[in-house]
Write a structure and sequence with these properties.
Helices cover about 35% and strands about 20% of the residues. The protein has about 350 residues and is an alpha/beta fold. The chain is globular and about 55 Å long.
Length: about 350
């Protein structure tokens, strides 16, 4: 039996999971107030604060930290890397500390894992961070050499549900052509071929469907005019695209459940709801072309996939391409645990950053 501690830091919380093999023994979300977080100038400065909270929780829960076989952290904004489970090395920690890909709370995941792991003599890993990059070279061209398309997406969940589907079908993930659609605060639609995500709509900005909080692809000329209008600062334009875009921009809410509820009586809400389904379906069609129409399965996942009307409407538009499977939610703690288990059981080899 492999006992693992999973650490998934967010901006105002740290999610913890204790697993025995793939069985969740305990789960806890440690909340951090704005006052607590604001005392730190940089995210990396929160390390000791969060570590103490984790150790105090384990002690209060009667868990001896020395009994863990492995510590797994959520991967942060590193340099682009292939998919896999990575040893948390000094170089990886250095890049997380220096925020080479940007400041984000998830950068603390690998650092916390190695800090705690080293103290108890246990290995530490990260699994499929958002910067996983397996794009075909042809997918990188945008039309402007200075602006290449980049791979930023829900790699952890996309890979986990793709492998789950393959396992349930008794097949090897590498032998399937899949289109995986993650629908949450951001939306990412990926084409999985030969065990790699060879193209994906960027979940953060500038690509694909709008989402509850993000604008997705917008008309570039109009955006350029907005940027140089003098009406907005750079930060204000960025907020319009990431944070206040999508559902927030049209309806003042990022709750997909509320949007659907309002759509039953309000024409504007119905138009936004239908446009979301339309754009996601269009992205799926684009990825079908990437796979030359040879698609074994379309997988819908993420929090919005709990909505039966959303998934039903998407199925109506895309089921001519391939059958559709729905795995609602995003079990990130389990996906992180599974990544470490595959390495410790010898099913995969840990990668070096």
């Amino acid at each position: 039996m492999i006992k693992s501690l999973i650490i998934n830091p967010g901006s105002t919380s740290t999610k913890l999971g204790i697993f025995e093999d793939e069985t969740l023994v305990s789960e806890e979300t440690l909340r951090h107030t704005t006052e607590e977080i604001s005392q730190f100038d940089k995210i990396v400065d929160q390390l000791d604060f969060r570590k103490e909270m984790i150790l105090n929780f384990l002690k209060g829960a009667g868990q001896d930290v020395k009994t863990f076989d492995v510590i797994v952290g959520r991967g942060g904004l590193l340099k682009p890397i292939p998919s896999g489970t990575y040893k948390v090395t000094d170089k990886l920690v250095e890049d997380l500390r220096n925020a080479v890909g940007g400041e984000h709370a998830s950068n603390l995941g690998g650092i916390l894992a190695k800090t705690i792991g080293d103290e108890i003599g246990a290995p530490s890993f990260i699994v499929d961070p958002v910067v996983v990059d397996e794009l075909d070279d042809v997918a990188r061209l945008s039309g402007v050499p200075e602006l290449p398309r980049v791979s930023v997406f829900h790699a952890l969940n996309q890979k986990a549900v793709a492998k789950r589907y393959a396992k349930e079908m008794g097949k090897d993930y590498k032998d399937l052509n899949l289109i995986v659609v993650h629908m949450g605060g951001g939306v990412s639609v990926g084409a999985h071929r030969d065990g790699k995500v060879v193209d994906v709509f960027n979940a953060l900005s500038g690509d694909g469907a709008f989402s509850p909080e993000r604008a997705g692809a917008v008309p570039p000329s109009a955006l350029m005019d907005m940027c140089f209008s003098g009406k907005y600062t750079k930060a204000e334009v960025k907020k319009k695209l990431i944070g206040n875009g999508g559902f927030n921009a049209y309806l003042g809410t990022n709750d997909a459940r509320e949007v659907y509820s309002r759509s039953l009586e309000d024409k504007e809400a119905k138009l936004v709801f239908d446009a979301f389904v339309y754009q996601v379906s269009k992205d799926i069609g684009a990825m079908a072309a990437v796979l030359s129409g040879k698609v074994d399965q379309i997988i819908l996942t993420g929090g919005i996939a709990y909505g039966q009307q959303v998934t039903s409407d998407i199925k109506d538009r895309v089921s001519f391409i391939a059958p559709v499977t729905v795995y609602p939610g995003e079990d990130e703690l389990l996906a992180l645990a599974q990544g470490a288990i595959r390495v410790l059981n010898g099913d995969e080899e840990a990668k070096e950053y």
